[in-house]
Amino acid sequence: MAAGTLRKIVLDSTNFNASGDIDTTQNQTTVNTAEATSGDVMHVITKQVASLDSVTVSCDGLDYALLKGLHDKLAPFAMSIVTADGDTFTSTGRINIEGRTTANNVATVQLLPDGDWDFFAG
Length: 122
Hints:
The protein is mainly beta. Helix content is 10%, strand content 52%. The chain has one domain (6-120): Beta Barrel (Elongation Factor Tu (Ef-tu), domain 3), CATH 2.40.30. It has one helix spanning 61-72, and strands spanning 6-11, 14-17, 29-35, 42-48, 52-58, 77-83, 88-101, 106-113, 118-120.
């Protein structure tokens, strides 16, 4: 995923405005582990998709209820992020709610995609 200032996220067709600047650079990684076998050592390479942590969005009481409903949803749903220059990244997945500040009407969420982020230029 490329770097950019996050302006908006869309979760299951609901728009949430980003309330601050955030660097959306997340590197996809692979984990190489070795498993002992009765013969040669078997290497297992696992791809880890890029998640976005601590995404701060504008969130009043109704928006928080929507976020909570998405957090509790068992099935993956469509999600996308839009950067300030109009680039859009889409995927499906789930969210975790990391926190909420009612005085500022913001919530912090973690986006956990099931696969790669698809890129669409703005």
